[in-house]
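Please, structure for the following, as tokens.
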Amino acid sequence: MLSVGLTGGIGSGKSTVASRLVALGAVLVDADRIAREVVAAGSEGLARIVEAFGPEVVGADGELDRPRMAAVVFADPAARDRLNAIVHPLVRAGSAAQVAAAPADAIVVQDVPLLVEGGMGAGFALVVVVHADEEVRVERLVGSRGMAEDDARARIRAQASDAQRRAAADVLLDNSGSAADLHARVDALWTGRLVPFRDNLVAGRPAVGAAGAAGDEDDAAAAARLLARVRAAVGDSGDVGPAVSPAGDGVVELRVRLTDPAAPALAEAFARRGFVPDGDGGWASADPGLPARVRTSGRAG
């Protein structure tokens, strides 16, 4: 399957993108929904939150009082870390279960609000970031959610910056315009990149063509994301060379020296990040937006 990470700041329109991708045929794994489920009334997650923060964070209906909980952790990083330490492992386990249940040829879109803040991009084959300018987002939050302007700006600025999100984005979807404009961009992404990427993975077929074929791309940032994915795939099984350089045919190339001759999980780890075996002991990207090769020395088992 193709594993896509979807993220964007509050008010960016990420949910609209997620809904459109589902309409096109994606399987959605919604981290926010799972986060609500794992702290529902009677859950282990809620019991652990009460133990950490006291019964006052539970409402009269037995559910987590989210506004009160948010007020506790918003301005207190230590409290936020305690809450995250409870909730995040439960969300990861729930997300993994839903991904495992998806069809083998699915395009699985994981909606992860804190993907950039959590440094999770290297775990996906592709990261899609929904972007809108701060003023547009503030207007949406004030108009549609009834937030005070100061609160809206504070929440936006407490999250990852636009520059951090751009660096993490394999695809940056601009949502500063109309819903129709956004739908058109999502449809083009689906037909022009996601479906061909998935089809290449299913067929075990490397992508071909010029690197950067997906459009306006920062080469250095793309190389950094590619390198991070390869390092995450290799883990303790090898050393990844620091240089990412053109191979002379428009395909980015990395070199890996394997230190673990067994490495039975390498193929699965590379597949999860969008790579297929290249028939020569290495791997090749199936992403039509950034063709790449991983050359190896040593033996992958």
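The two ends are 23 Å apart (CA to CA). The CA atoms of residues 230 and 270 lie 7 Å apart.
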